[in-house]
Amino acid sequence: MSFPWAKQYEPKHPLMKWVDDRLPLPRFVYNAVGAGYPVPRNLNYFWNFGVLAGMFLALQIVTGIVLAMHYAANAGIAFDSVEHIMRDVNAGWFIRYAHANGASMFLLVVYIHIARGLWYGSYKAPREMVWLLGVVIFLLMMATAFMGYVLPWGQMSFWGAQVITGFFSAIPGVGETIRVWLLGGFAPDNSALNRFFSLHYLLPFVILGVVILHIWALHIPGSNNPTGVEVKSEQDTVPFHPYYTAKDGVGVGVALLIFAALIFYAPNLLGHPDNYIPANPLSTPAHIVPEWYFLPFYAILKAFTFDFLWIPAKLWGVLAMFGSILLLFFLPWLDTSPVRSANYRPTYRIFLWILLVDVLVLGYIGGAAPTPAVILIGQIATIYYFAHFLLILPIVSMMERPRPLPNSITEAVLAGKGGTSPAQTALATE
Amino acid sequence: MATLDEAVPPGEVQDAPADPRRRDYLAIGAVAWAGVGAGVIALPLINQMSPSADVLALSTTELDVSAIQPGQSIKATFRKQPLFVRNLTPKEIAEADATPVSDLRDPQTLEDRTKPDKKNWLVTLGVCTHLGCVPLGAGEGENKGPFGGYFCPCHGSAYDTAGRIRSGPAPTNLTVPEYEFISDTTIRVG
Ligand code: HEM
Ligand code: FES
Question: Which of A103, A175, A347, B48 has the maximal Cβ count within 10 Å?
């Protein structure tokens, strides 16, 4: 693991020596996020987002455990218990707003983290396992966030649960049975709410476990970097601590500022007002929308309005929606270009920008009412999303002529191009 | 150095054929039996998630429909799900009958979906067969959609006056639950 020139942990205090001989946990931390982990010297701020994701996971766990001390997972009183947190519990409003907006911040930094991986080719050999575990974390996060959103038992909670568990009824033959089994009833009710709470409490700790595997897998080849060129010698790296602990500290400060601005000035900006109406099983809100972070996937679900090749529209929608995420598992093998970083891939990077626009369009469509124009744009954007991964990427990887790579990270750094970001690449005159 | 498999346990005859060994039977048998045990223990853990007895107990509902005028409908509940009871006007019945069944995604006639001589009474679950929203059209002044029946606002499924799916992503017609007329004006659902 790691490079031969990595600094060795040398406990100075006899007590630390004693611990190290029996349970080398401090050594483990030192090698993982301390001076014992050599990191490419040219990482830019996009490399902050992994640490930021970890921070938001920790914050969700802390605020969540506190909320659970006051929340009651019973369909009769869940809504009132959340209002009790908001009005009666000391600083309850703060903790709840921190948890609700913390979920948004967590998803936001993870999306940027994923986009970083796409731009710099971090999913490619030898880091495929890091990427695969990342996609697993993303799926677990989606499940956790969905079940958390059900807990306040407002109108969006209830109807979100109804629609999302409805996905399972698309499975031919046994779908309805599975749905009823998942809910423990014919519609979302107390049994569903209780099990969602149980799982919402559990899954973040599962995520924590997978995060540890993710970092373990990362530390075998070491971090990628903006040039995508592998580390060749000691001068290409600096120790994680103090160099990147300091750099990450800057990012942590900025992220917390944005987080605080949301909590204190716009706590309901990203929420939906209908979720302050108690759940009513007899009336669907005029316009059901999921939380912003699910909108692109919701748009893909809605894009299928017609039966096609014996498969009913509903099943297509559900398959496409799950497929759009499962596709990411195959990315390391769909992109066959030997060059990692889009900084040196003039064609690929154009399509990556188009993909970003496409996902933003899908996000808009996901939140819009289903008029014919909206459905059509959603269908085109959905086709493009799949085409990017299944057609464009393999073809571009074969045809593209990459720009010459620097011989080493150090050479790129000395030429002033070590940490080039996507924006700088876009602005640079060719 | 001998591997574990080749090692001859003390006391066994050296030249006895070693494949398969008695020890393998024991190992496979023990692990298989533990597997059966794990499976048996898993059953209650899976089954506990199915609807519990109190949920299943809410399984029949009686409704007096005498007050519903032609053209009106009511929303009731059945198994905690919305239930639509609609008194169709002659025009709505004619519209439903005029639609060629072969054009439908889920081919059914209005007769298939109603009781004999009670063709004007359309009883369906108010649960969109797409992903389960409550379609509009049963309440006073709600949007009945392009086919005059029900319209689901979630992803735009439109149902006709017989509650049949006509456009949008829903795969099947609105479900007609099991029910019967126990008198001329009362139905029992479930
Ligand atoms: C992966 C990390 C987590 C995510 C993404 C997440 C997400 C969410 C979301 C989106 C909500 C709905 C907020 C609202 O609209 O009010 C929620 C509620 C809740 N979560 Fe979490 N959560 C996480 C971790 C946890 C943990 C570890 C606990 C600990 C038990 C927890 C306990 C709760 C409780 C009690 C509620 C209901 C109160 C409320 O609605 O504010 N969460 N969660
Ligand atoms: S739930 Fe009715 S159209 Fe999707």
Answer: A103
